[in-house]
Amino acid sequence: MSIHAVEKIFWEFGKDPARIAAFRANTEQYLNDYNLSATEREMVAKVDLKALANAGVSTLLTMMVWPILNGPEGMPFVYLEHMNGGKMPAPPGS
């Protein structure tokens, strides 16, 4: 896993919103600038933050990039559902 490359992509999204437009316009072309395996490219292209976090990408970055790519609506609940396989995590002690 090229954790550093994936995290750099996400960091750059937060730093320069024009990069998000370039990513959306031509995802495959955009990702050519980064040293990613085919699996990593697929996870980033699909914005599969759960798989990326499971592979070691910082969950602080995944939480930062979620509203940047998906909009702030439903944050943090929709993000938590995504990270928990499509359902809300159970409250502590339940």
Features:
94 residues, mainly alpha, 64% helix, globular
Tell me what you see in this structure.
This protein is mainly α and 94 residues long. The protein has one domain. Helix content is 64%, strand content 0%. The protein has helices spanning 3-15, 17-25, 27-31, 38-45, 49-54, 59-70, 77-83. Helix 1 crosses helix 2 and helix 1 crosses helix 6. It is globular.
Protein structure class: mainly alpha
The count of DSSP E runs of length 2 or more, i.e. the number of strands, is 0
The run of helices and strands is HHHHHHH
Separation, N- and C-terminal Cα atoms: 35 Å
Note the beta-strand portion: under 5%
Any idea what the radius of gyration is? 14 Å
What's the rounded overall pLDDT mean?
90
Number of domains: 1
* Contiguous runs where pLDDT drops below 50 for at least 5 residues: none
Tell me, briefly, the overall form.
globular
Helix and strand topology:
Blueprint: H1 3-15, H2 17-25, H3 27-31, H4 38-45, H5 49-54, H6 59-70, H7 77-83
Helix pairs in contact: 1-2, 1-6
Summarize the structure.
With 94 residues, the protein is mainly alpha-helical. 64% of the residues lie in helices and 0% in strands.
